[in-house]
Records
---
Amino acid sequence: MQFFVVSLLFLLALLRLSRASFYDNPVLELPPVGGTPLEELERKWGTDFGFTGITTYAHLPHTRCLTHPETLYDIILLGIPFDTSVSYRPGARFGPRAIRAASSRQTSFRGFNHRAGLNPYTSWPSILDCGDVPVTPFDNALALRQMSEAYLELLSRRPLSYDESADWVHPRIVALGGDHSIALPALRALNKVYGGAVAVLHFDAHLDTWHPGKYPSAWFDSPGSQSDLTHGSMFWIASQEGLILNDTSVHAGLRTRLSGDDFADYDDDTRQGFLRIETDDIDTLGTQGIIDLILTTMGTETPVYLSVDIDVLDPGIAPGTGTPEPGGWTMRELIRILRGVEGLNIVGADVVEVSPGFDDRGEGTALAGAQVAYEMITSIVKGGLVKRGLWVESEHTRPGTEKLGLKGLKDKVKSVVADVEEQAQKVITPSKGKDEL
């Protein structure tokens, strides 16, 4: 009898489902005379899927900030589509567009950074995509002036969350390059608004502190020629102008070939005050050793310009770049290091040299660039919380866990191994059946 009742109920449910139709939608009604309430419109249409919407970085609101001084912001993404100072493969002018497209799966409703314990897009700052600086590709001297004035214009505006006690007097710009020479106008502008030199944390396969005369030519005198500006000389120029703090700046991920027959390039770099961390050092020091070396050198109070050339990654991971060098770091290693140095006082940042014309079909280089920008934004947002005294570590740690030291990691491994062995034993030694008793 019970079986009959259950079967009958099941058949009635199937019958009800069979009457349902794909076309059984509510009757359409005109919006109210006064218009649909804004809250209702936002609820219905205010969220994009990763593949919908206008292409801004992480679906952030877009304003052409350079021509809208009334728009207030705390952190901005700014495209610098400039690549006419490259020494090998051009194409990074399309980098900002590629990075934005690759960031489309980042959204505010799924933006929680589990490594940092926060969602930068729903935290305290106003974050905007301010579009691109319209940089000329025909005259590098003019382009340098355009980029410098654009940076200075945007940095000199008071941020929405102005807080002098929290050192939030100027907004932060995360630039999407473009070739690496865009760091020079950024440093010039930072020097103006902060009234002095800043330290540079420079992730790159190359030194980028080369004297312009290292590119041999009988056609120009150096220094002094317009051709001095290259994506390998901008830090040399910045050092000559007193824009970079000596002895607190760091290169990380180096593996470049040097000029001539000796270490003269390194000697010149040392005179400019950089600490050099080679790509191969990670094999000896590990990621934590790299992190400790950076933090020991730079401290947490010094204003830092964070500059990431995507060619710090191995070209097997990020082929779409202007000067690829085999033997680089993995993306996992780079993320680990970026998260490890989140306590730095970052006043500006860039991710550069993404050249989508040389990227793979899966847009791996652009995806890496988008992730780097995300990690930068997260660190800046978290730094603002710490400065305001609003960061409580225990509130941002995954429940039931804590940041693991070496001992904690070993304990975690032992626990996992024990669980696996226990499950394997159950499979190998099943419980005995009646016939075996």
---
Amino acid sequence: MPSMAAPSFLSSFALLLALCSGHVAAQNKSAPAITHDLGCVHLPIVHSTNVNHFSDKRGVQLKLANRSDVAYYAQLSIGTPPQPVYVQLDTGSFELWVNPDCATVSDGDSLFCERAGRYDSAKSSTASKLGTKKTLRYGIGTANISYVVDTVSLAGSAMGLEKVQFGVATGTEDHFSGILGIGYGVDVATPYRNFVDELQTQNVTKVKAYTLALGSKESKEGVIVFGGVDTSKFGGPLAKLPIIPATQSPDQVPRFWVNMKNISITPPNQNTQVYTNSSMPVFLDSGSTMTLLPPNLTRAIAKDFGVDGPDANGFFRIDCGLTNVNGSLNFAFEGLNVRVPYKELIREVPGSPPACFLGITPSSNFALLGDTFLRSAYVVFDLEDNQIWMTQAANCGSTPMALRNMQDLGSLVGACGTTVSAVVTTSTSVTSPLNNANPTVDVSDTSQSGAPSTGGRTQGAPSSFGARSIPGGGSVFWSIASIWTAATMAGKFI
């Protein structure tokens, strides 16, 4: 859709919100160079299916357990002069690293790996090697990295970040792209300032927060706004959800855990039905292709999509014709109900004929909402006040704006003209006989930062109150044990 000007009702926020740098420059070509005082940086989120950026021969027909139909990338430029690289956006991990080993992946993956770009510290006049190494373990695969400090340039902004610490891979397994972990950083999940920390520390953003709009599968592009919001990506107000503290969360890790009230289904031309025992903590993970839910709840939902049980790989194969059906699965939170259309929920794998799978997989360890949910939500991640602000996603243009104060989100209204639907209160219950609506998680500690969870992205991390020091520095990282099966089934695109 064409871009829209900022609506008049935002004028009252003039002292609190400012248009992001790229839009200011476009309005006044004679304006002086943009400074970071404007307070936000917006980067396009490029879908892996976007052939304008990536090859259409990227190997999506490979093993379903290890690949996804869509993954989400942003471009960074690292070093002096800048070297462009694509990295996968991941709210479920905490560190930035680049340079997967393209020689260790298959031919189809190798092509995609090369197109994602490479960083060479020897070609940067501002690079400095720290001499420290680490192994990052994910649900699928690992990355052995050496830490480097260098400049990171930001698209759409004249400003860059100086002396940013990140990892350069010396060897990887089952990874053909780097990762931009945008979870909690210094003194919470990392011993140094991560990317989100540096944005605020270096005054590129005024707040330690960002907003995520992945975009629909059809649009093939979304936007992430660090330090601000894009009011043209939602309509109505935003609902505020407190992030559950790590010490009270199912896995004892500082992730974006929130309480979900229930899940319901709205079949075409039928009444909405609520699944019983669907109230539980969930965390929001853009690095996970699939949504993970307790096994009995997953089976109950799959049955309503016409599937009695999973296939040999643990996936629920469904009729591809359902992608054209006007139904939805609904996720209710306090003051909010996010509707996920069937098309966005269903995972489509090209072939002759194509194969379609329910975008939910069972996990007895914990629940997370991955990309099959997040495509339909507009989410603000507030790492200052430990809040999630969320509403239904929409798209009526592009008006990214900087936030001066997180509290003002309570009065902000999106420009798209749709209102947040109320949480379902009068519905017919559907029995979902869960053994435990809030499954416990067996946690163990490890000297690595890898807590595999959902197929290749989510890391473990120390909580700010739970990390224990070890001789020689560093900390013991809490992680989730014995979830290899769930990790494989989640099928993150890596």
---
Amino acid sequence: MASLWLKLISISLIYLNVIAKSTPHQESEFECVSIDKQSALQHPLMKNHRIQTRPSRELLSILSTSNGNILREIDLKGSEECPKGQVPIHKQKTNLTNSLIHPQQIHRAGRILKQSRRDKKKKKNNRRKKNKNKLMIPSALLSQKNKIPHHQPKLFTETHLHYAIVRTFENTTKKWRGAQALFNINKPRVVQNQFSKAWIWLNYIQGSLMSSIQFGWAVHTNLYSDDRPRLTTFWMSDQHPKGCYNALCPGGYVQIHKSIYPGLVYDKVNALGGKQNTVHLSVAEDPVTKNWVLTIGSIMIGYWPRQSQMVDGASEVYFGGFAGNTASSQPTTSPPMGTGEFPTKDLSRSCFMKQLKYVLSDYSVVDINANEVEQYVDSRKCYGVMFLKYVDYDSRETLTFGGPGGQC
């Protein structure tokens, strides 16, 4: 009997040793720092900044206009909390800037600075001609099957970056104070030096200067240590024109929540045709503090201080997908976007954003106006976009997008 017990103990020890080897200890992906010592507040502009720890009543009123199904559908949770007075800051692999993967500031600002007056006049005349060829989204269904002209002007010149979006018209004089949507969570298959995002852009452009707040979920192998979808943000401003992800740079994003933070993994992802795991994300200017606040449902996660971000509001808004390669020195295969399939009416098989809304200049929240946006897909053989006008009460204005990628 004693020998039997010894054998059982030996087998158990071997089993435990195998488990220990197959599940190595995972180092925490964030560090807790004092809320007033985080990088964002270590900037001269933030010297007298008063930290906002909760949304104002006016901002809560804005958030309450969203549909009632949002809160129960949140699938993003922080597994650990920082102690009182501290906040979690994600330990990113590197501080990537827009010069690598956010080229719009270079294309629309850097090149403008280098233009001569003659070049500006020539480009202005060419733009007038091209604007006649832009396709406006009608108040009905749009998809990659709609005959988008092949001569549609490109938003960006970089061949390693791809977009499938709807956007507000460039020539509008309107200003927006925020945007929001209900995202479903997907895990497109990417390899090293690739990224794929479901994304909202709030941009302010004045002459050669651009400020931007961007948010959503991203699979990003250069930014994170794996290929899991994560809550991700990006910002740029006049004081920080190269931009910065998440919470690492002075003068930028201020973290407030004790357990939910940019960089946190979405644990539940969708299976094609299965249950759709969703999260409602919003960035809106607080009417009282004028800070740009990031929320999940009505939960405040953090904000971008008014001292450095879009005092006059956003002049354009984009919703959709963004995918590409961070290494652009040689031709590469472009990654999948969304579910990896082209968008369809079947939302259980498509990457989507539902309940697309703007916050207007008077802080009222409205569904996006299908007559004030246009679609843009730079590579139709690799990606597509489909806009569904008012699907139902829960979905409302809905956008689906994605594609397999490939040689784009």
---
Amino acid sequence: MSTDHERCRELAHPDIVNFSVSVFIVIGILVSYLPQHYKIIARRSSRGLSPLFVLLGTVSGTASIANILTLPESTRDMGCCQEIGSFPCAAALLGIAQIGVQWSCFFFIMLLFLIFFPRNADHPEEQDTSLPTWKEAVVVLAVSLAFFVFAFIGSVIFVYPAHAHVRGWANFLGLLGAALAAIQYIPQIIMTWRLKETGSLSVPMMCIQTPGSFVFAASLAVRLGPAGWSAWGLFILTGCLQGCLLALSLGYMWRDRKAAKAAKAAKAANGQGANNVPLSNGDSEQTPLLGGES
């Protein structure tokens, strides 16, 4: 109890610099996901997003939020809110808020992926067999919700009846979340390479998150040192995979812009208005809306 009391006294006097940095990270996480939410809604299509990418990201986020909520250190800090003021309490829980915002944002991506999933209900024979099917999208939702229920029930059991093993449960969730986060971009890289276009994948989101992964890895490396390689090494791996996906997407965007300019120039040379220029398969963000979703 004395250790807990000392921890509460420490939290009662938060460091303003650390508080400011933590708030900046929370806002940065939220802002980084907004372009992806907007792009899916604006296009009214989730074409181009890999179901496995969405599933791994959602399950990883669920495991991470369950991990931080069940860690003894987190529950101890939450218990200190009864002894310290509102501002120190908010500062103490910013780490939980960071994970919570990230989980909420990716869970919303999963919902948008399902809501705006492109379907050819009227012409099923026109369905591109290389694209994900509606059944796969439903499986993503089902598995995501099933894991959420599993993590919730398991956390309740280990926090209360089996409290002696709660750290083992939290460590399991943390390792699972880290492992899934490390590989979640691989299926999206494959999907983007197969489609030869970005589709509904947000390039601005990756532009924010890719350098963010390396910055976060550097901050962890400074704080934990070489011995903490398992923590900051994960973010380096994630940043590298995000960087590969970003480079691939930028290459396709550059290709499409060149093709669009060439098409407009050809039409202008033939004396036709640029407004009548047809779009190629990868020319526009609207391609899936006009073709694949009819």
